[in-house]
Amino acid sequence: MKPSPFFRTSGRVLAALAFSFVTACGDDKDPVDPPDSGTPTTPLYAFVAQVSVESTSTSYVILTDKVDHTEPLSLANATEIPGRALGSGIEKTGALFVSSSGSAVVTRYNVTADNKLEKAGEVSFAPRGLTTIGEYQNQFQFASDTKAYYFDGRTAQIVVWNPKDMSLTSTIPLPGMTIDGTVLSFASNPLRVGTKVLMPLAWRPSAGIGITKKAGIVVLDTETDTAQIATDDRCGYVRDGVVGADNQVYLATEAYGAAVKRTAMANPEVPEPCLLKFDPQTAKFDAAFYKSLGALTNGSATGSLLQGPTGSGYLRVLDESTYTVVEGTHPRVIASAVAWKWWKLDLKADMTAATLVDTLPASTGSSFLFHAGDRTLFTEFTNSSSTTNFRELTDQSGKLVATHSGLSFSFLQLR
C-alpha cells in the first residue's frame, strides 16, 4: 500500500517501490521547487555523524548539496551537538528535528536561504518521564507537519507531539513491551502499511550474552492514535521486516541474533534465526508460517531482512570463507564484521531458498537504509566503528558514494 505524503517509512529499497513521502524528485540535479518559487532549487542533505573519544560522544550535522562525494565529508563547518544526536523529519520540507542522548529535548532547525541551520523552537519530553533520547532515527515517525510520534522503550510509551508548534500532545502507553531481565531494542527500519506504523521489537538478556526467545511488534494506527502489541514465542531478536507483494509483513531475526546462535550452535536454549509472517490488518502472526533462515542459505549463519525489489527482500549471510569465527569472539564483533553477503529472497508461501547477489560486496551485518530521492543507500561501519560508509543499494552495485568519520544513524534529504 502507498504511504501518505508526510509519513516516512523505512521499508523502501529500490525505485520500483513506492515508499517516497512526497513527489519523487529524480536524481540529485533535479529541481525540488519551481524556478519561480523564490526558494533555492538545489537539493540539500543532512548527514549526522557521531564521533566518540574516550567514551565521550559529540555529533555533527553535516549539510551538503549532493550525496556523492569522492573525498570524506568534512566536520569542519558542521553543527555540533553534544552526545549521540539523531536527526529526523519529513523529507524535503526544509526542517530538521535534532535530539540527543544528553537530554530529553528535541530542537527544530529550519534551513535558511544560504543553506545554514537556524533554531526555530524546541520541546522537552521530560514531562512524559524521559531523561534522554536515543537509539535510532526512525523511532521518530511523522504523520503530518503537525503530528509526530516518538517510540520510547525506557518508559514503554509512544509520545505524540506537534512538530509545527513544538508542543506535546499525548502519550500512548505500551506496557506489554516490558519484559523483566531484558533489554529492549527497536527496529532500525520500521514499516508502514496504510495508516499503520509497524515497529518490530527485540529483546536480549540484560546480563550475559544471548537473545530472548520472543518476537514482538507494535502496531500504531495514526488515524486513531491507538496501538497494540503482538508477540510470538517461536524465535528471538526478530528486529527486521519487509512488506511483501501480498501486503503481509515478513519478519526476521537480525544479524546480531544470528551471530549469537553461531557462537552457541550446540546450545538448544539459543533459538535459531527464523522468518515469520505477520498480518498488519488482523495484527496477528501466522501460526502456520515458519522458516529457518539457515535453511534458506545452505546452512549459513543468516540474519537481517531488508526490503528488496517488489515482492522480495535481502537476507544477510555470513561468509565464513573470508571471515573465521574464533571461539570466544563476541557476537557483536561477528555482526560488525565486513563479511555479510547479500542474498535475495522472493517472499512467497512456498519459498525454499534465497539466491546470492554477487554484485553487492560483503559489508557489516547491521545496516541502516537511507533514501535520497529515488535512491536507497545502506551503511557500513568500518575502521573499528570509527568510520561510516554509505553505499548504493538501488542498482545492486554497492558503490561507495560517501564516507565520514564517526557513526551515522541519521540521514535526511532536507530539500
UniProtKB/TrEMBL annotation:
Keyword terms: Signal
Taxonomic superkingdom:
Bacteria
Q: Where is the signal peptide?
A: 1-24
Q: What is this protein called?
A: G-patch domain-containing protein
